[in-house]
Amino acid sequence: MRPRSEGYARPRVKHELDREVERVALALTVNGERASLLVAVHKTLLEVLREDMGLTGTKHGCELGECGTCTVLIDGKPELSCLLLPIQIEGRAITTIEGMASGAELHPLQQAFAELGAAQCGYCTPGILLAARSLLETNATPSRDEIREALAGNLCRCTGYVKILQAVELAAQRMHD
Fold first, then answer.
1. Whole-angstrom Cα distance, residue 36 to residue 135?
2. Does residue 12 lie in a domain region?
C-alpha cells in the first residue's frame, strides 16, 4: 500500500497559485462591441470568451478541433475557437451565438431551428447555427449537399441531422423570399 502523500494525482506544486503568468493587453471586437482585456497568453479564444468575457454560448467540446462545438465566426467565416489564440485575431470581427439575434428578434436560422425542433440537447447548436449563418451569407440558396458540406465539421450526438438540414433550408427560403 502506498503512503497517502504519493497518491495517483499530480503532486501539488508548492505555491502554484503564486507563479507568474504572462499576460498581454488585447482589444477584441466581439459581436460588434470592442473590449479591452488583459489575457493570459496561454488561453484560447474559447477560454477568453467564456471565462473572461462571460459569453458562455460558445461551448467546450473536444478541445481538439474535431467536433465544431466551439465554432465562432471570424470576419464572417467559421473558425474553431478552441484552436485559436486571441492574439492571432486581434483587430478582426468575432461573432458568437450571443451576437446572432438582433435584440429580442431571433435570426431566421434560430427561428427555424426552434420551429422544427432541430436542436435536441442544444449543446452543438450554437456552432451549427454560426456555420449555417456563414453559408447563407455567401450562398442564399444552398442545395442539401452544400448545407451538408458547410456543416460537416459540426458533430451532433443527438440527431440524425435531418431536422438540422430542414431548418437551414427553411431559413434559407425565408431569407431569400
1. 30
2. no
Q: What's the domain range around 82?
A: 22-99
Within a domain: 16: no
Distances (CA, A) of 90 to 32, 76, 109, 146: 13, 15, 28, 31
Angstrom CA distances, 123 to 54, 78, 134, 137, stand at: 17, 17, 19, 23
Residue that finishes a domain, picked among 45, 78, 99: 99
Query: Quick check: 154 and 71 in contact, CB under 8 A?
Result: yes
φ, ψ (nearest 5 deg) of residue 26 = -130, 150
Per the structure, the count of domains in the chain is 2
Does the pTM surpass 0.90? The reply is no
Burial-class residue 24 by CB neighbours within 10 Å (0-12, 13-18, 19+): middle
Q: What pLDDT sits at residue 14? A: 57
- 8 within a domain of the structure (yes/no): no
pLDDT tens-digit readout, 46-84: 999 999 999 999 999 999 999 999 999 999 999 999 999
39 and 70 assigned to the same domain: yes
C-alpha cell at 158: 443527438
